[in-house]
Design brief:
Largest sheet: 9 strands, antiparallel
Radius of gyration: 29 Å
Helix content: under 10%
Number of helices: 3
Distance between the termini: 65 Å
Number of strands: 40
Length: 513
């Protein structure tokens, strides 16, 4: 029986279509910028008819005028080609859909779905929202918002998964396919990294191209200037990265905060890939990058196949919620591990600090290069001599192992005070460089945070501290509020303050970096 056999070409977007066809249907997907036609795509088919005249190619559907058949070659017994482009009217913005019909006279039709994404211009507010990009790619993924910009805080959005590290799901290589890019125009190295004792070790997979004949920085299926779409990290756990002109964006928040704190904390959002019918495509994920921090996550988008998430908490709890094992207390005028007024109480897995006595609880262990998390909440009571002042507490860290107990020991303090959470206090002549300036050494020097992100009184807040290779970063409820480098004290013990205010601390945990 004579048939019409369709074979997709090896152009970048059609490589994607081969992948999509295996899951859903035959489809060609294009993108264009206003007043510019898309890159053309070529569909090849083998003519097994007795006459080439029996083959008819035409466009159908409501948006057929947005697509153009550039050329058709037909010859009996040969591979034939149809070249198509997306060229919508200048005032069209959004997604157009049509069909390419290849008809064999008397033998039935082959129908190829056509999708085109049109934007109103290059960069900025002209770019398409991630939700529209995902729709054009043919996926049913709830990214968590509909507009262009959103935010880059670490809370999960839509179908986003709570994982940032992966392993191979099966034998063979991992395939990483660039499916969208809406960013400024520059070469973009991308790949995977392995966590080592010296930080993230990058392994480049490829480099996304700069603009050529077409705007490769504002398109679906951006071109690769060099490299491969295949990676193989073996059996190791790995994350993903992409490196722009100013910084590298990592799939783990900790490296974004530690190494590039002025940019997005959550530099990637990662989603399971689902077909339009809502079926999850096994071991396949969409990696969406935020290049700056406006939260559009359409800057660089990759489909990655043959991976599975590694879901394991890298943090170790250092306050057990039952007693002060691993800690000792110190109160001014009272001493070490003496608490006659029951100033430190453990209730409901939290350290309830009454605050009447001035002092702290301090770890016995010394920490180097770490990421600390502590939840805190204000109580009601304030004590003399600060009964009329702001409620006060704090986290001091990098306290040298040989530093004697005192009020206050040599350290860096992450301030916890109403309205001031995240300030630096450099204690006992410690120093740090912030915005190119080093504080003058003294008993206590304040360096005010860049922004405020403390919650309303009565709510729990999450305070994070990163101390890494001489850099200190303070994060309040997922937002970097302060950071400095070249700190004078780079490792040591950690304390939680009691400072004339009732305060609760809980979920005290640490990850070694």
């Amino acid at each position: 029986m004579k048939i019409l056999r369709i074979i997709f070409s090896l152009l970048a977007s059609t490589i994607f279509c081969n992948y999509a066809t295996a899951q859903t249907r035959k489809e060609l997907i294009f993108s264009s910028v206003k007043v510019m036609a898309s890159k053309p795509d070529t569909l090849t088919f083998e003519n097994q008819e007795s006459s080439a005249k029996k083959i008819k190619v035409k466009l159908k559907g409501a948006d057929k005028s947005s697509f153009t058949i550039i050329s058709v070659t037909k010859a009996e017994g040969q591979t034939n080609k149809v070249v198509v482009s997306f060229n919508p009217s200048p005032d069209f913005i959004g997604i157009a859909r049509a069909e390419l019909q290849i008809k064999s006279k008397g033998k039935g039709n082959s129908v190829i779905a056509l999708t085109g994404l049109a934007t109103k211009g290059l960069e900025g507010e002209n770019e398409p929202p991630l939700s529209r990009v995902v729709d054009a790619l043919g996926y049913d993924i709830n990214v968590g918002w509909k507009g262009l910009a959103n935010h880059s805080r670490p809370e999960l959005l839509g179908d986003e998964i709570d994982a940032s590290l992966f392993k191979k799901a099966g034998a063979g290589s991992i395939e990483i396919l660039p499916v969208a890019r809406y960013s400024p125009d520059f070469l973009l190295p991308f790949g995977y990294y392995i966590n080592t004792v010296n930080g993230p070790e990058k392994h480049e997979a490829g480099i996304l191209a700069k603009r050529g004949e077409f705007p490769e920085h504002q398109t679906l299926f951006p071109a690769i200037a060099s490299g491969s779409k295949f990676i193989d990290p073996g059996e190791k756990e790995f994350g993903f990265y992409a490196t722009g002109p100013t910084h590298t964006a990592y799939s783990e928040d900790k490296w974004n905060m530690a190494l590039f704190p002025v940019n997005a904390v959550r530099a990637t959002r990662i989603y399971p890939v689902k077909t339009k019918a809502g079926a999850v495509i096994e071991n396949t994920y969409l990696i969406c990058y935020e290049e700056a921090k406006n939260g559009d996550y359409n800057d660089y988008v990759f489909v990655v196949k043959n991976i599975k998430p590694v879901v394991n908490d890298k943090f170790t709890t250092i306050f057990n919620g039952k007693d002060l094992m691993g800690w000792h207390s110190f109160l001014k005028g009272i001493g070490i591990n003496a608490d006659p007024n029951n100033n430190f109480r453990i209730e409901d897995a939290a350290l309830h600090v009454i605050g009447k006595d001035l002092g702290y609880v301090m770890t016995d262990k010394v920490y180097t290069d770490f990421h600390l998390k502590v939840d805190f909440k204000w109580g009601v009571t304030k004590w003399p001599p600060r009964e009329n002042a702001k409620r006060d507490g704090g986290i001091c860290y990098n306290i040298p192992a040989d530093e004697p107990d005192s009020i206050w020991p040599k350290s860096v303090e992450c301030q916890i005070q109403e309205g001031d959470a995240g300030d630096f206090w450099m204690l006992s002549f410690s120093t740090i460089e912030v915005d190119g300036k080093i504080n003058k050494p003294s008993n206590h020097t304040q360096i005010v945070k860049m922004r405020d992100n403390e919650k309303t009184y009565g709510e729990w807040n999450t305070m994070e501290v990163i101390s890494y290779k001489g850099r200190c970063v303070h994060i309040v409820n997922g937002v970097v509020v302060n950071f400095g480098e070249n700190v004078s004290t780079k490792n040591g013990r950690i304390l939680l303050q009691s400072e004339y205010s009732e305060i609760y601390y809980r979920n005290v945990k640490i990850e070694q970096l």
